[in-house]
Amino acid sequence: MFKALILVDNDFINYSIDLTDAAQRLAGEEELQLYGLGINLENQQIKGFDTLICVEEPAIQAKDSRVITDIVQQVHQKYDFDSIFILATDFGRMVAPRLAMRLKAGLVADITAIEVDQQSRKLIRPAFSGNMLASIICDTKPIMASVHPNVFQAEEVTKQPEIVNFSVGQMKPSTIEVLTVTENEKQQDIREAEVLVSAGAGFNEDLDQLTDLAHKLKGTVSASKPVVEQNRAPREIQVGQSGKTVSPSLYLALGIYGSMQHIEGLKNVKDLISVNIDQGAPLNYLANIIVVGDAVEFVAKLKHRLNC
């Protein structure tokens, strides 16, 4: 029996459920017992687990990583899991290393694939700024991993879990105090978009020029890592291993070279159009359609053709 725990992120419940796919892959041919841990879920209906461990403590600050780490540690001490998966969100990145230190376990961050054979279990992640992939053999437990949202995708999640209420023991009081709250303008998450118009270093104009085109295609604008590093786009719209993993129906890549770091951010893209002056750009080898030419000129002509 292989016992896996997934920490449910209240802000990304569907992506948390997707981690059941990662747990299934890691279990290999062993029988899998899937546990979810939810904290202050407020009666939200969650499927896909064999057992859902619920902690209802109104005094717990939802984003207090130290208190959440205490809770996960207590749950692990009771159930003795073989693996623990945590979403690599901003919050998950605070919890995962703290928990690994508590449990004296290794942590493989930002995994993109899992390989299991009769000899070993391997977690795969990009290394050296995404220029190569590292296969890390895990032979101690618990095997801990953090995973970007949308990297793994669970199918047909219908299983109704057994609900187990868990009472936490003595915990240090939260030291987090909310001083102010600022509401940001709501923008479509690029992970949810069916169409992405994505700019790379080869698109050297203002990204605002892509807004009308994206709207015309009923999509949104995204960008590659170099564009974000040039302060031409916010990190929230970055595609890639250090950004977000996306699965659009159409991905229009404008001047994107296609490093491994960027390609790791593309999962199950149905149609990929690559526009680049470099015919040998790596992304071209993944594209359904290749346009060899200047991305800025291509955008101008396409907008004219679409009357936008």
Give your account of this protein's structure:
- By secondary structure, the chain is α/β, with parallel strands linked by helices.
- The chain has two domains: 2-165, HUPs (Rossmann fold, 3-Layer(aba) Sandwich); 190-306, TPP-binding domain (Rossmann fold), CATH 3.40.50.
- 23% of the residues lie in helices and 26% in strands.
- The chain is built from seven helices and 15 strands.
- It has helices at 13-27, 65-79, 90-103, 211-216, 225-229, 260-263, 295-306; strands at 2-7, 32-39, 51-55, 83-87, 107-111, 113-116, 121-127, 132-138, 143-147, 162-165, 195-199, 220-223, 250-254, 271-276, 289-292.
- The strands form three sheets. It has a seven-stranded parallel β-sheet, sandwiched between helices.
- Helix 2 (65-79) crosses helix 3.
- The longest helix is centred in the first third of the chain and has 15 residues, at 13-27.
- It is globular, with a radius of gyration of 21 Å.
- The mean pLDDT is 92.
- Belongs to the ETF alpha-subunit/FixB family.
- It comes from Candidatus Enterococcus moelleringii.
- Pfam families: ETF, ETF_alpha.
